[in-house]
Each structure stands twice: as structure tokens, then as C-alpha cells.
Amino acid sequence: WVCLPSRKSTSAAKYIAIYLGLALAYFSTLSHFPEPYALHREALAQTAAALLQLAGQESRVAGTTLLYRGIEIHIVESCDGVVAGITLVAAVFAFPFPRGLAPRLLGAFAGVAAVQGINVLRIALLTLGAPYLDDRAFALADLIAGQAFLILLTLTLWLAWARRAMPRTGRGLP
Fold first, then answer.
1. Are strands 65-68 and 71-74 parallel, antiparallel or unpaired?
2. Element (H, E) at 28
3. C-alpha–C-alpha distance, residues 105 and 29, integer Å
4. What is the pLDDT of residues 27-83, one digit of tens each?
């Protein structure tokens, strides 16, 4: 018997290859050229502060640090939402539908923008909770309610994109 890979296994292998390639590119450029990533984290801090101020909460930003009620929230590499974006982009390009580059690029760009928007909201909400949490509880909230929730929403975004990208067969989802 000759075992040929199924479509599911080739999509999974394609996802892993794309994810590892993008992650390797990200982490190697981060180590050699940290300035653009610092600018990205500064923009996240500025945007989260603007969102807090829109909600009537006074906050300030100093570089990649968000200052709120005497508490410093440091936006570090793991807070930038890039890994969640890499997860989404790899899934979009590994999925067998739609055919063509344009719909995949549109899905990837729109998805990454949505992930970054969700991430800013995550940072703002964690900042609002910071005065009521000790360091350990804040770290736990960041890890569980923050990072895990961001990945869950990223996968939900991909599922919504994949559902829309699938060809209509008239028989429901395969």
C-alpha cells in the first residue's frame, strides 16, 4: 500500500511550515532590528491610553510603558499580538480555499488588523484591572485572560474567515 497524504494532513503540514517560517523570520529580525518592534509596542501603548482616555480614565505613556493610577504597565514583546497575527496568517495561507492570492491577502490583512484591535482592547482592560490586582494576580490575568483569550479570538477569526472562504456546495459544510 502506498499512503498518500490527505488534504487535511497536507494543510496541517503547510500550516506548521508557514507558522515556523514566519515565527523564525519574526524572532530573528526582532533580535537584529528591535527598533521597529519597539515602535509597534509604543503605538500599542499610545492606542490603549487613547482608548482609556476615551472611557474617561486618565493615563499617560512613556515609551512602551502605560502609566495608569501610579501603576506602570510595560508592553513587552509577548504583549504585541504579533504571534497571534502569525498564527492567523499561517492558517489563512494553509487553508485550501479560496483559490488565488488576493482573497488570502485580504483575509490576512483584515485578520491581523482585527487581532491588533483586540490586543489593544486586551491591554486597556488589563490596565483597568491593574489597580485591583497584586503582581501575581495581574500576571495570571495577563496570561490566562489576556494571552489565551487573544489566541482563542484569533482562532475564532480564522474560523469565520474559513467559513466564508469555503466554496458553496449546497450541501452544507463538508
1. antiparallel
2. helix 7-32
3. 22
4. 999 889 888 899 999 999 999 999 999 999 999 999 999 999 999 999 998 889 999
Stated pTM of the model: 0.85
Q: Give CA–CA dist 91/28, Å, rounded.
A: 21
In angstroms, rounded to a whole number, what is the distance separating the alpha carbons of residues 16 and 19? 5
CB atoms within 10 A of CB 146: 20
Q: Which residue matches cell numbers 483559490? A: 99
CA 92 to chain centre: 13
Q: Are 66 and 45 in contact (CB under 8 A)?
A: yes
What pairs with residue 74 in β-bridges? 65
Residues 6+ apart with CB under 8 A from 134: none
Other beta carbons within 10 angstroms of residue 93's beta carbon come to 18
Q: Please, which residues have CB within 8 angstroms of residue 79's CB and are 6 or more apart in sequence?
A: 41, 44, 119, 123, 142, 146
